[in-house]
């Protein structure tokens, strides 16, 4: 008799494996982390990892696949805010909150190293970025309309720029140091309506 596949168990196991893989990829790099090391850390076999992921590249992609629903949930949390400027500041702060975690910058470096070689990975990263960009742009447009955000800004371009600032916070991160205040101050200065003298 064929074994019944339990979708909830499968998705839990995939998440557990991806989480451990992410930790090891961030600490040691993609190339220097073997599937057997990931399996060992989870107390299972490489074969069981390959039951859930077709190869190591698919496992690496899975680390970033969870960013899509996370981005959607984050945008959903702020999209209807009555104060669009404050919502953008909170959103950027939320996006930058893991910059003090040393594994986060390690993972970003690994991502930058591999995204050019893996079209599927690029698609995942682009999808996450576009969810965030359109959500932030929509808040910026609302802020421009209510006068709390500089009307000379282009909402889409500004949203992309804010994402670049968050990425820079990760690339320049110092372990244990949160750039929260710097991020907030930079974004506030950039978005605030300029007073003309």
CATH-derived topology of the largest domain = Tetracycline Repressor, domain 2
* Terminal CA distance: 81 Å
Strand content: under 5%
Computed Rg: 20 Å
CATH superfamily of the largest domain: Tetracycline Repressor, domain 2
Average residue pLDDT: 91
Helix content: over 70%
Total helical elements: 10
Quaternary structure? single chain
Largest sheet: none
Unreliable spans are none
Number of domains: 2
CA-based shape: elongated
Number of strands: 0
CATH class of the largest domain: Mainly Alpha
Task: Label the CATH architecture of the largest domain.
Answer: Orthogonal Bundle
Task: Please provide a written account of the structure.
With 197 residues, the protein is mostly helical. It is 72% helix and 0% strand. The protein has two domains: 7-62, Orthogonal Bundle (Arc Repressor Mutant, subunit A), CATH 1.10.10.60; 66-191, Tetracycline Repressor, domain 2 (Orthogonal Bundle). Helix 1 (7-28) crosses helix 2 (35-42), helix 6 (84-96) runs antiparallel to helix 8 (119-146) and helix 6 runs antiparallel to helix 10. The longest helix is centred in the C-terminal third of the chain and has 28 residues, at 119-146. The protein is elongated.
């Amino acid at each position: 008799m064929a074994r019944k596949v339990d979708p909830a168990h499968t998705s839990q196991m995939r998440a557990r494996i991806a989480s451990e893989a992410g930790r090891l990829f961030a600490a040691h790099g993609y190339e220097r982390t073997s599937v057997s090391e990931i399996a060992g850390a989870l107390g299972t076999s490489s074969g069981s990892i390959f039951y859930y992921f077709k190869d190591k590249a698919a496992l690496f992609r899975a680390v970033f696949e969870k960013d899509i629903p996370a981005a959607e949930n984050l945008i959903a949390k702020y999209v209807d805010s009555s104060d669009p400027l404050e919502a953008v500041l909170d959103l950027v702060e939320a996006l930058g909150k893991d910059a003090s975690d040393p594994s986060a910058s390690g993972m970003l470096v690994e991502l930058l190293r591999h995204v050019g070689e893996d079209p599927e990975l690029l698609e995942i990263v682009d999808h996450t970025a576009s969810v965030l960009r359109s959500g932030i742009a929509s808040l910026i447009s609302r802020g421009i309309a209510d006068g709390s955000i500089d009307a000379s800004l282009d909402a889409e371009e500004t949203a992309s720029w804010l994402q670049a600032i968050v990425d820079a916070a990760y690339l320049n991160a110092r372990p244990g140091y949160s750039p929260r205040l710097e991020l907030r101050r930079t974004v506030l200065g950039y978005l605030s309506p300029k007073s003309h003298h």
